[in-house]
Every structure is written in structure tokens, then in C-alpha cells.
């Protein structure tokens, strides 16, 4: 049991786009050393929640803290993997260079990466099983490989808290298993990992903590307590079908299509 501040604490957070609330009065407390999924329908505010914590969107009200302090004071503690679709993959750079970019926060902009940074980057690529692609152009990789490169870039930051926005989107089963293995390894090392996730059926297998979100927080806590039929129906507006004791993946994102995530 940690007596120190929570890894992540969100209090009374409200975010609005064009006067429409995307998050409303959100409270989330995430302890150290958990692997947490954020789940909810399209338009629930999942991506917006991460961006608000990272200072990428301005809240209308409330506060967000990393280990007791605002993100601006805790940047060194945080690693971030954005949605793959938000990145310009045609930028002419090598896989190794992309991974070494994860060290810039520790180096500062005026120190060039050296042999130590190269070693760390190669080790991270080995962790995600891509060391053989170190010198390849990033644009030449498959979508799943690109996702693993971004994961490697986050790993070299040696952060304490990681945020990952849909890291399993568009990847094959082998890549998904490789990614979840890395994330579970981070948790085993005492890191806190927060993942925007869509596949409800894998939540109990992959995660030990979950936040169910639909503009407001429906539930937040250990999977065994928060990931219940009742909470899922409330989060998804009663449109969840249950098959074999678990929610159907076919309807997991029903409703709110096209709204901000």
C-alpha cells in the first residue's frame, strides 16, 4: 500500500469542445504499479482524458496530477504513445533514430545522443522484437511494427507512468501479444501503465485496473470490482450483448460515432 501520492489523480475535471462537454466532473485515482485500461464507447472522452492529464488540451475546470504534482513539473516521469494515425510516418528517419528521440527529454535539446543512447535504443528495440529493423526507414514498416517502434521510444524514456492511446489498434495477434507482454513487464517493474483500449473481452486477461468512461466516470478500480455487467451497461447505454459471460466485441463501441474520443 502506497502512502505517497497516487501515480495519477484527476479531480473534478471538465473538458469542453465548442461548449459541448467531452468530460464532465471526472474523478480518477490510479495507484502506483497497475496496468489500467480506459474503456467506453466512441465519444466517451478516453483520448481527451489522457490529453488533459498531459496538458495537451485545456480543461474548463478541475486538476490533474502525476505523483502529486502537475504534469509540467513531472515530465521526466511520463512516457506517452499516441495513436498511430496521428503520426506522420513518411518523415524520412530511421527506426533507431525514432527510438532515440525518447531520450531527448533527459538529454536536453543541445546535447547530441551518444553511444549510451544508442545502446538503450537498441535494447528497447530488442524488447519489442524489432532490433533487426534498426536501420530501416520508419515508413517501410508495417502498422504493427510502427506501433512497436513507438512503444520502444517510450521505453527508453525510463518513465514511471506510461500513457498509451490505442496501442493495439490495427495490429495482428502476434504484435498484440508482444505489446501486452511488454506492458505487463512494465507493471511487474513497478511502473504505472494507462491504456485506451477497445476490446472488452481482453480486459480481464490483460489488465488489473479499469476505468469505464462515458463523458462521466462510470467506475474506476480493480477489474474484479469495476468491470461488471451493470457498469458496462451504464457505460454503453444498455447496448452491450453478453456472450458466454463476457461482453460481445461486436457491439463494444456502439453509439456516439464520430464524436471526439
Rg computed from alpha carbons, rounded to a whole number of angstroms: 18 Å
Number of helices: 9
Biggest β-sheet description: 6 strands, mixed
Q: Any idea what the shape is?
A: globular
Helix share, percent: 25-40%
Pick out the low-confidence regions.
Answer: 242-261
Strand content: 15-25%
Secondary-structure content class = alpha/beta
Secondary-structure element string: EEEHEEHHHHEHEHEEHHEE
Distance between the termini: 32 Å
- Please report the total strand number as a whole number: 11
For the largest beta sheet, what order do the strands appear in spatially?
5-6-7-3-8-9
Mean pLDDT: 85
Q: Can you describe what's shown?
A:
By secondary structure, this protein is an alpha/beta fold. It has helices at about 45-55, 95-100, 105, 115-125, 145-155, 175-190, 205, 225, 230-235, and strands spanning about 10-15, 20-30, 35-40, 60-65, 80, 160-165, 190-195, 210-215, 215-220, 240-245, 245. The strands form 3 sheets. Strands 5-6-7-3-8-9 form a 6-stranded mixed β-sheet, with helices on both faces. Strands 2-1-4 form a 3-stranded antiparallel β-sheet, covered by helices on one side. A hairpin with a 1-residue loop joins strand 8 (about 210-215) and strand 9 (about 215-220). It is globular, with a radius of gyration of 18 Å. The two termini are about 30 Å apart. The model is unreliable at about 240-260 (pLDDT under 50).
